[in-house]
Specification:
Elements (H helix, E strand, L loop, with lengths): L16 H26 L9 H39 L5 E5 L2 E4 L4 E7 L5 E7 L5 E6 L5 E7 L13 E10 L5 E2 L2 E7 L2 E3 L6 E4 L2 E4 L3 E4 L10
Antiparallel strand pairs: 1-9, 1-13, 2-7, 3-6, 3-9, 4-5, 4-7, 7-8, 10-11, 11-12
Length: 229
């Protein structure tokens, strides 16, 4: 089982825009103070210089400082949110989940799929395709109202060969007693064996299938699954 290290998941503030802005502002402010001090030392005591401009610049510096502080606070909140997202995703590690989608990951001759029907069907067919869209399996499927499960052993209906490990998709064709179609809702189902941190949002992994933790609809008991399609 693949694991994920969440020790460094809640990252500290990155060297982002706020930090760079603060560094630039500090340099500009030092230059400003040096010029102000020099001019004050060398001003004509009889005709002192107008300090309105310097006062205005000081106010501008204070405004920019406040904006940078707000950006730093925002960056902190974003990092905290990312850390929370990683921790939430990590809680699904090793769990058998049902999520939005229509994919299953075939591994060692076992792939799990789920779907639901709004009403009981008279007939139902499951079609499984590979990543290239090629049909590799056709067979009967459960017709029960509500949630239905399918376990595929990876066998190709047309060649009899066992398909290679990878991502496969299902489609369900269900009909009632009058031959009218019944719309099935499919789900991605399987064991979470990893968490991807490559993007802005942590993603759960079932094999090479990736999806956000917010797409999880249920944590299932794998023993509830029927064997065979």
């Amino acid at each position: 089982m693949t694991t994920v290290d969440t020790t460094n998941a809640a990252a500290t503030i990155a060297n982002g825009a706020a930090e760079k802005a603060r560094s630039t502002l500090a340099g500009d402010f030092d230059t400003f103070l040096l010029l102000l001090t020099t001019q004050l030392k060398n001003q004509d005591p009889i005709e002192p210089m107008d300090t309105n401009e310097f006062t205005s610049q000081l106010v501008q510096f204070a405004t920019v400082e406040q904006a940078i502080q707000q950006n730093e606070n925002l960056e902190t909140l974003i990092d905290m949110q990312k850390g929370t997202g990683v921790n939430t995703a990590a809680q699904y590690m090793g769990r058998f989940v049902q999520a939005e989608g229509n994919s299953g990951y075939l591994n060692g001759g076992v792939a799990a799929f789920s779907y639901s029907l709004p009403s009981k069907a008279t007939t139902a067919q499951v079609t499984i395709t590979d990543e290239g869209g090629q049909v590799v399996f056709n067979g009967n499927a459960p017709t029960n109202v509500g949630l239905n499960d399918v376990i595929w052993d990876g066998s190709n209906t047309f060649t009899g060969q066992t398909m290679a490990n990878g991502v496969y998709k299902i489609a369900i064709t269900a009909k009632d007693a009058s031959g009218n179609p019944i719309k099935a809702t499919t789900y991605t189902t399987g064991f979470v064996n990893g968490v991807s941190l490559s993007g802005d949002t942590p993603k759960l992994k079932i094999g090479t299938i990736e999806f956000e933790a917010g797409k999880v609809l249920a944590i299932r008991d794998p023993e509830d699954f029927a064997v065979g399609a």
